[in-house]
Each structure stands twice: as C-alpha cells, then as structure tokens.
Amino acid sequence: MQFGLSQEQTLLQDSVTKYLRDQVALDKVRLIASGELNDAEIWQGLSELGLPGLMIPEAHGGVGLGALDAVVISECLGYHVTPSPFISSAAMAPVPLIASNRDDMLAGIATGELRVGVAFGEAIGARTGAGVVAKGATLSGKCLFVLDGDADHYLIATTDKKIFLVSTNASGLKRNALRTIDITRSTCELVLDNVAADLISEDPRVYERTLDMGRVMQAADTLGAAQCMLDQAVVYAGQREQFNRVIASFQAVKHMCADMLANLEPCRALVWYAGHAMDDIPDEARMLACHAKAHLSEVGRGVAKTSTEVHGGMGFTDLVGLHYWFKRIGANRQLLGSPELVREEAALVQKLVDQA
User: Fold this and answer.
1) Residue 141 near residue 169 (C-beta atoms within 8 A)
2) Cβ(206)–Cβ(99) below 8 Å
3) What CATH number is given for 116-202 in this structure?
4) What is the DSSP-derived secondary structure letter of residue 113?
5) Handedness of CA 274, 161, 157, 341 (dihedral sign)
6) CB-based contact 42:185 (threshold 8 Å)
7) pTM listed for this prediction
8) Is 177 exposed, middle or buried (0-12, 13-18, 19+ CB in 10 A)?
9) Residues paired with 133 in a beta bridge
10) Tell me: the pLDDT tens digits for 12-36?
C-alpha cells in the first residue's frame, strides 16, 4: 500500500509554498518579530488563498477540506516560519464551532475577518495561580499561554473540559501580551472577572478532538521548521570552506546531515497519517496525535541543535536567522502539552497505564 498526498494536495502545497516564498521572506518575519509589523497583512494574503476556511464546510463559506489538507498547510507554514494564527483560528476553532452549529462565527472565520484564539492550557494542566472557573454563564480566573494574542474571540476550556466562547470586548476581560521564545507568533494571558461567556460544548470528546487537531498541526509545523533547518545546513555546508575544502566534504559533517535526514524523514509519514486519522480513523486519532506531537518535539529539537552546530558560530547570528526556526520548534514542544504529558495521555488511551 502506498500512502502519500493526492494530486490536489500537492497542488495546494505548491501554491501556498509559492506565496510564502514570495511574500513572507525572512526580512518580513524579522519586522513582525521586532514588533514593527503585525501578522495582519500575512493573514490577509493567506485568507485570499482560502486557508482560514480550509476546514469549514462550503455551506458556511469555507473550502470543506479535511485535517490532512490542513497538515500539509501547517507544514508549509512551519517551513517558512510564518507568523499567523492558522493553528488556532483555522484548525482548532472550527472543530467545536461546527459541532455546536455556530454558523454566525464560521462564515467570519472562513473569510479571515474573525480570528479565534484558543485558551486550553488550564484544561491541559493548570499552573499555580491560574485556572478558569465557570459560574453559570460567566467565567473567572486566569489563562496562560493563549494561542493568538490578537484574536477577536477566544475559546476557553475549563478543567472539566467544557468549552466557552468569549469576545475580547467582553466586560471584565483583560488581555496581557506574553513574550515567549517564539517571537514570530503572538501569545497572551487572559484574566477574567465574571466575564459573560457562551457555552459551546460540554462534551469531552469535542474538547479532545479540538486539542488533538492542534497537536497534529503543531507536529506538522515542527516538521516543516525542522526540514527547513536541515535544508539550510546542507546548503551552508556546501558553501562554507575550511582548509581550502567545503565542509560538506568532511566526514563528520556528512554524518551530522545524514543523521538529521534519517531521523526526520520517517516523521513525515507519521504526521501525515495522524492527519489522515483525524477524519478517517477516529478510534486511533487521539493516540496518533499524541505520538506525532511527542515524537516531532524530540526529533525537531535534535535537528535544530545539529543544524545550528553545522553552521558553527554563524548559526547563532541573526544574519543567518536560524534562531527563528529553533525557537518555533521549542515553543511547539511545550504548547498544548509537553512530550512527557502527551505520552502519558497516549499510554492511557492504549491502556498501558491505569487512570489515576
């Protein structure tokens, strides 16, 4: 059996790659990372390609494609270290909103006019001094490391896996920007004081599917970022000379590049299959999402480290810019669950350990 991308998915990948190569150069990423620009222009361009509505049904103005198609896009965005709210607004948010028939929100997301952030951190594992409590139709508490600090609405998950929708204009809501290691994407803290909220879902399965969708997209994003770092290392090794020879001719450098490739290439099948399972093998989707995120977190970190070492001292400079991909991989490793946590969840799904 051969498992790969369809012709349509390959064409989608090529068109997005062309746009990102032409419109999201590293110089623009630097401006966004420094705060001189925001990602609105990039998101508008991606909206014209139809990416915000990728997973929204055609009846609501979307494209009506599936999770594997979104995985392909997320991999492209990671390769070009693209500043965008794709994972939160285009991949995660449609899951509970479609399940709850929120047609009013879906049309706005599909056009890119509405951005929906995701605050699931406290449901995954509440930190000291944080956590969200629902009292009737209001929320109080604090959410840390919320995806998309510039969103118009937020999906907030409580510790009992209920999902609420909150507008950024709601009375009692305070939004504080957070600066993480990944300065290409906005992250924030939400402080809620009796904030009016709409209950979107009480079904834990909807929460789990939303979370799994985000984890698969993060794995794909890491895959793309790691592939770009590997490609840059190979190009640099073929140009950099020492002792009148390109360093690519040194056996040690050859081994470093070969090890990166050998570790990274099998990950592509894992990530693609995890995306395929989200729609077509629901019984395995949660397990595969956990394993994909955990494994790419480890492999991505190894590729990022080795690629930087191939570049030598230049690898640490902003001139080369490797640190943008390095930090993207590091942020993906922790957001929506660390490798240790998601492996434990996978073990519970596979009944390898007992529920505490």
Assistant:
1) no
2) yes
3) 2.40.110.10
4) S
5) negative
6) no
7) 0.95
8) exposed
9) 140
10) 999 999 999 999 999 999 999 888 8
DSSP output for 281-303: -HHHHHHHHHHHHHHHHHHHHHH
d(CA 180, CA 189): 11
Name the β-bridge partners of 265: none
- H helix intervals, the chain: 7-23, 26-34, 40-48, 67-79, 94-99, 103-111, 121-125, 204-239, 251-280, 282-310, 322-334, 339-349
CA distances from 183 to 13, 201, 294, 325, 330 (A): 25, 32, 22, 10, 11
Q: How many CA atoms lie within 13 A of 30 on its CB side?
A: 10
Residue 140 in contact with residue 133, Cβ under 8 Å? yes
Q: What is the pLDDT of residues 78-135, one digit of tens each?
A: 999 999 999 999 999 999 999 999 988 999 999 999 999 999 998 898 677 778 888 9
User: Are the C-beta atoms of residues 320 and 229 closer than 8 Å to each other?
Assistant: no
Beta-bridged to residue 139, according to DSSP, are 134, 195
What's the pLDDT score for residue 356? Answer: 63
Domain ranges, ordered by start, for the chain:
7-111, 116-202, 205-349
Q: Which two tokens stand for residue 108?
A: 């706005």
Class of domain 7-111: mainly alpha
Percentage of the chain beyond pLDDT 70 is 98
Q: Whole-angstrom Cα distance, residue 25 to residue 320?
A: 13
In the chain, the largest separation of any two C-alpha atoms, in whole Å, equals: 73
Following CA atoms 23, 26, 28, 34 in sequence, which dihedral angle do they give, to the nearest 10 degrees? 160
Q: Which CATH superfamily is domain 205-349 in?
A: Butyryl-CoA Dehydrogenase, subunit A, domain 3 (1.20.140.10)
End-to-end distance of the chain based on CA atoms, in angstroms?
39
173 phi and psi, to 5 degrees? -100, 130
